[in-house]
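Quarterly update from the structural biology core.
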Amino acid sequence: MLGKLIRYEWKNTYKICGSLLLFLAIMTIVVGLSLQTPFWGGLFTGNGRAVADSGGWGAATTMLRFLGMILYFLTLFGVSIGLFIYLGVRFYKTMYSDEGYLTHTLPVTSRQLLNSKLLVGSLWSLAVFVMIALSISGMVFAVASTVISTVRDYPEWNSIAPITYGEAFGAIWEVIQEILGEAGVGEILLQLAMLLVSVVNGMMILFGSITLGQLSTKYRVMMSIVWYFVIQLSLTLVNNWILMPLLYSGMAAADWEYSGLISVLTPGNLANLMAQLIVTIVLYFLSNYIITYKLNLE
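Predicted structure, tokenized:
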């Protein structure tokens, strides 16, 4: 039955969530292509106005490109926040509003309901994270490509800082090596585990806050928001008082000549991982208990 719930949840969320991902992909392509125009090449060489004029680009077109960049960054923010709000609203409606009466008449347990929504929500959250990472990487490549091609077209720049695509990617690889250092497989797997746990933790905080808010007889939505900020504030305090000292101690004891950034951050990240796991587990069982024994539908 859990499999059917997961398929049903996925079927009812993919249109909105998929549309957000598609919109981000389109914005990345459009803005990335706009960075390849003569205006941006002139901007990097300090001759933006001349290039814009010679290429027939007016002030209005130039302004549109800047607005496109602003819209792109707003899209990054809007997609992540939009998905978060959508999943929260859907969880509330299907679990605690009038629609919740139908949901809780299904021949399934409260744990199965919670598991299906947590799994699907986490998968969408992970998909958005990956999409944003790919989008930013694509934009960085677009900017780097413009800079490289522009420098190669200006001899006076090329004599100062000769750049080829091979040199550019070589520099990027050096940065990656600095980050990795001599990190072992276990330390790299820890980073992947932190990513997955952070995704599930974010969804569980959202669903747990909404569930705790339903214990109130009035202003349930407002109380859900209050609970969310209380939980996040508590995690921030724990991070500042307990986790950050561990991070600083790891940085102080690290041999920076051989240790990469991952190795240096491992003690603090491990503590952070444990903290997120504890919060996720507590909120999961607390939410399941409330849904099972303290359900208070509108």
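Residues 182-298 form one domain.
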